[in-house]
Structures are given as C-alpha cells and as structure tokens.
Design a protein that fits this description.
Elements: H1 2-23, E1 42-47, H2 53-68, E2 72-77, H3 82-94, E3 97-102, H4 111-119, E4 123-127, E5 139-143, H5 145-160, E6 170-174, H6 182-200, E7 204-205, H7 220-223, H8 234-248, E8 257-259, H9 263-276, E9 289-290, H10 297-305, E10 311-313, H11 316-331, E11 341-344, E12 349-355, E13 358-360, H12 367-370, H13 376-382
Parallel strand pairs: 1-2, 1-3, 3-4, 4-5, 5-12, 6-7, 6-8, 8-9
Antiparallel strand pairs: 10-13, 11-12
The structure holds beta-D-galactopyranose.
C-alpha cells in the first residue's frame, strides 16, 4: 500500500512537471498540452487478434464509444502477427490518426510502428498490454496486473485449506501466458509471491518437469517464460498438459491444482485431463482446482459444469470507458485524469490507469450478467438453464 501511495505521489509529481513542460510546447509530456485535436479526428485501434473473444469485445466497445463522441475510428485486428500489427498501425498513421490505441500482440515488436506514429504527431495509448522498450508510449490503461495472479493463487490456497494448516503435500502444475506479453509476467508474479512460501515449506510441490521444473528456488524472472504458452493458445496448453500427465500422472497420481492464467489455457488443461485421465471426475475430490482469467463464455460454461473452479473478470466495458476518457482529455488538451500507477517498459515509466479485477466462481457467476458482460439469455444457455 505504501508503495502504491509513493507511486501515486510520484506520478502526480510527474504529471505536474509534465504540465509545466507542456507550456514549453513539449509534445512528449504526459500532462496538459495546448495542442488540441480537432473535432471528428481519426483514432486508430489496433487489436492483436480476432480469434480470442475478449479482443473483439474490447475493440468494438471502444469503437462504438468513440463514434458516439464523433470520432472517426479505424479498428484493426492483427491475426496474432506482429508484422500485420505494424502494418495496421502504419495504415492508421497514413490515414492521419491523431491517437493510436494498441493492444500489442508482441509488446517489443510493435515498438518501431508506434515510434513512427509518434513521429507523425500521434499520441500512443497502450491498451491492456504494455508496449515495451520504447519512449513512444504516452499512457497505459489496464487492470491491476499482479492482482490477477493474487486472486488466482488465493483461490487455490483457500480451496486447498493451506491457511488452515493443511500439510499436503499437494501436487500443483503451473502455467503462464504468452512469453511475448509483458502482462503474463505480472500475472505470475502476483501468484508466485503467494505460492512460493508453500513450496518452501513443502506443502506445495510441482512434480512434473514442465518448463524445466518449478520448485522453491524458482523465480519470476528466471522461470515465467519457461512455463509459458505461446499466444495463449488452447491447443498448445493442451499439448503441454498432456505431456505433463503422460510423464507424471499416468499411474493414478493425484493432481490437486493447476494455476492457469487465462480461460483459453484452462480449456486446454481440461481437454488434456479429460483425454488422459477419465478417472478424474469434476465435482469430486479427484478433479483439480483450475483457475483462469477473462470470464470467457467457455469459462462460464466450465465453471457451471465444475471443470473450472474460478476465473478473473476484467470488465472490458470499464476499460473502454477509461480509455475513451483518456482520449477525450488528450483531444481537449487537458491533463489526463485517473492515473493511479506507472509501469516501466524498460525505457520509461509509463503513466497508467489501473482498474480492479474481480474473482468469479460458481457463487457469483451471475455477477457477469449484472455487469452487462453477458446477456441473461446467453448465460442461461451456457449454464444449461
Ligand atoms: C492478456 C490479457 C488477458 C488475456 C490474455 C489472452 O494480455 O491481459 O486478459 O486476454 O492476454 O488474450
């Protein structure tokens, strides 16, 4: 908490300094500027892929919000290809986009494209995923990244009764997200800081050699990419989980939990278990605790069926509103409000707006309907009502 307060104070200080710098006409400043963007200007939105549910929602929500405000919007999806995303961003700049909003496929590979956008005078907003290793990022809007991992790890800790003194040892397997996505590291960091002490005391063990193995000496920086799933793909997660089951759980061994950072990965894990270990039965003690993230439709179904225990809900409607507010403030030459943190992208500290993620289980699954994230009709269909 102290660190957060320090961060807020530092960012507020930065914003003030930037505000002063802006008076001198410094375009790279993060505060108010006298350069306004004309009404009806073009905003580019570059999403990483259409093949994952959330980016469609994210892109379309933001586009609709901005069009209501009178902006022209170019929305592109990059098919998980960094070169495609860079071409998409170049196209936005060629069409005179004054602001580009980018959810990077590859946080580092997208650097040169946003640098060109910046050189052409556009402001750059990193959307959900940070753009790495460049100065050409003005703002970042996302959710409290480590908190996602905290919610997942705490769910496992609570369900296994670790705080109540259960000694196990419990078998857990761990996965992280895409190795080219900076978010994946932070999700794991939040989780690992809570799980590591239980590895230290021997209550949790990860018996497979997945990614070279995870033990009490593993570290976030040293290990997160080794247990990653390229492009967050279900198929890759399934393959990896199948080899874990073949190597380590093929003689009836118990698997107590799987730390999964994304519902698509959880689905791969579930597929693998159902293929390789039909004796594990959802809803009984034989089935592992499986976490997730994004509250995808498939996760609503899986949580309702009891194959997945938990997901982390990040309300993309709120993220779209937060970014829309940023865009309007930038366009009006005002200081961007609501900055409550900063993230270092290996070059600069990027002023960030961080929203709160929420843990979802069977008990509060219908909150997703109340939040307007899924319709009642779809929810009923997914939960078999
Ligand atoms: C991350 C994002 C997650 C999830 C994942 C897979 O960058 O923060 O919410 O969507 O990508 O798309």
């Amino acid at each position: 908490m102290k660190a957060l307060k320090r961060t807020i104070a530092a960012v507020a200080g930065l914003a003030m300094m930037a505000g002063l710098a802006a008076c001198g006409g410094d375009r790279t400043s993060s505060g108010a500027t006298d350069e306004k963007i004309e009404e009806g200007a073009t905003v580019g939105i570059s999403m990483p892929t259409k093949s994952e549910e959330r980016w469609n929602k994210d892109g379309n929500n933001l586009k609709a919000n901005l069009e209501k405000k009178g902006y022209k919007v170019i929305l592109s999806f990059a098919d998980d290809k960094p070169a495609q995303q860079n071409a998409d961003i170049e196209n936005m700049v060629n069409n005179d986009a004054k602001i580009v909003v980018v959810a990077a496929k590859d946080g580092t590979a997208v650097g040169p494209a946003v640098e060109k956008a910046r050189d052409a005078g556009a402001k750059v907003i990193a959307y959900d995923r940070l753009i790495m290793n460049t100065e050409a990022v003005d703002y970042y809007a996302t959710f409290q990244l480590e908190q996602v991992g905290v919610l997942e790890a705490n769910y496992i800790i609570d369900t296994l009764g670790l705080k109540d003194g259960e000694k196990g040892p419990f078998n857990i397997e761990l996965f992280t997200g895409s190795p080219d996505d900076n978010n994946a590291k932070y999700f794991f960091k939040g989780a690992w800081e809570l799980l590591q002490p239980y590895f230290e005391s021997g209550v949790l063990v990860s018996p497979s050699n997945h990614g070279g193995g995870i033990d009490k000496d593993s570290t976030v920086d040293g290990n997160w990419q080794k247990i990653s799933v390229m492009s967050w793909k279900t198929e890759q997660a399934q393959k990896d989980m199948e080899s874990i089951l073949d190597s380590t759980y093929s003689h009836g061994e118990k698997l107590d939990a799987v730390l999964s950072p994304y519902d698509g990965i959880s689905q791969g894990v579930i597929n693998a278990i159902q293929t390789k270990r039909p004796d594990m039965v959802p809803g009984t003690d034989t089935w592992p605790v499986i976490t997730g993230q994004d509250a995808m439709e498939i996760a609503i179904k899986n949580i309702s069926d009891g194959t997945q225990a938990q997901t982390v809900f990040k309300d993309v409607n709120k993220l779209a509103t937060a970014v829309e507010e940023m865009i309007v403030e930038i366009a009006e030459g005002k200081e961007v409000s609501g900055i409550n943190g900063e993230f270092n992208n290996d070059k600069i500290d990027v002023p960030s707006k961080l929203l709160d993620p929420v843990s979802i289980t069977k008990d509060n699954l219908s909150d997703l309907v109340d939040a307007g994230y899924v319709t009642q009709e779809k929810f009923d269909q997914l939960t078999g009502k």
